[in-house]
Amino acid sequence: MTTTPHPMLSVAPEVRDALADGRPVVALESTIISHGMPYPANVGMAREVEQIVRDGGAVPATVAILSGRPTVGLSDDELEMFGADQGIRKVSVRDIAHVVATGVHGATTVASTMRIAALAGVQVFVTGGLGGVHQGGHDTMDVSADLTELSRTPVAVVSAGVKSILDIGRTLEALETLEVPVVGYGTDEFPSFFSRSSGLSVPMRVDTPEEAARLVRAQLDLGLGSGISIANPVPAEHEMAREDIDGVIAAALADADRLGVVGKDITPYLLGRIVELSDGRSLETNLALVRNNARVGSAIAVALAALA
Ligand code: PSU
Ligand code: MN
Fold first, then answer.
1. 264 part of the active site
2. Counting atoms of ligand 1 from 1, which one is nearest the CA of 266?
3. Which of 49, 113, 147, 218 is most buried, with most CB under 10 Å away?
């Protein structure tokens, strides 16, 4: 399938050409760079992931908002800027219009990356972890717009699941209600980001890029409307023991509570605090799972392009 991007987007020539030819493209997000990992590991990760996507036979397209322009495909200097500049705004879908109207930079979350990817005609998106229902979210109503977006934008999102800074069970319940297929990649269990297990099962499973691509194709061709969550567990040799990471997460949640961190700041705060409290151990696992997602996501994009 070939596509013409929305006219308000800035699409890198390489990405535009690939889309016009129906060649595989993989979208990547920028909040994971600006708010998900410390500098300079974040920039190293962004570059490495782009290279893994290329090695897998697809064109990488990191999404962000640059001086008010939704952009699909960042340059190397732009990746560096999004990693180094501490002041870049975290932009979910509700923030897009304001950032565009005021002409500033914005780092896109899973939700806003999905939306901009869809406006460009990109169907596969690789990230680390999804947002979801926060701990206590059934009371505070802190539920990530990533879930809303998955319900309304037909993009396949490859992640390592949801970490237990969130309420994983309620996140899966919400995804069911929101009509989002949650697909285990080579697993029957929904992964919990740092670990392969969560104790919760996935409703469906695929074992190869081709199987995943057929599922994505069917979802798109039927116009079902919602996105797809492809949950790809961290490789066993890089996973953290549940009891190790759970203690770190509990301590980070307690710190957030004590400091009164809420709203859009809570997820970045917790991610940063987890890296500190684990002495960087969690960062190694995070990097490993993102690399693995890039390998799987590019293979799915290649298989999807071959079906067209
Ligand atoms: N989880 C991670 N790493 C991340 C994020 C979540 O392990 O970088 C980021 C993603 O950009 C995700 C966003 O879309 O946090 C969710 O933020 P919120 O909970 O405010 O919706
Ligand atoms: Mn929130």
1. no
2. 20
3. 113
Residues in the chain, overall count? 308
Instruction: Give the H/E segment covering residue 95.
Output: helix 93-102
Out of 50, 80, 163, 189, the active site residue is 163
Q: What is the pTM of this model?
A: 0.98
Residues with CB under 6 Å of ligand 1 are: 29, 31-32, 36, 92, 109-111, 128-129, 131, 144-146, 163, 264, 267, 271
Q: 165 Cβ partners below 8 Å, 6+ apart?
A: 134, 135, 249, 252, 253, 267, 270, 271, 274
Cα of 193 from ligand 1 centre, angstroms: 12
pLDDT by position in tens, the chain (length 308)? 678 899 999 999 999 999 999 999 999 999 999 999 999 999 999 999 999 999 999 999 999 999 999 999 999 999 999 999 999 999 999 999 999 999 999 999 999 999 999 999 999 999 999 999 999 999 999 999 999 999 999 999 999 999 999 999 999 999 999 999 999 999 999 999 999 999 999 999 999 999 999 999 999 999 999 999 999 999 999 999 998 999 999 999 999 999 999 999 999 999 999 999 999 999 999 999 999 999 999 999 999 999 97
Residues at the binding site for substrate are 90, 110, 144-146
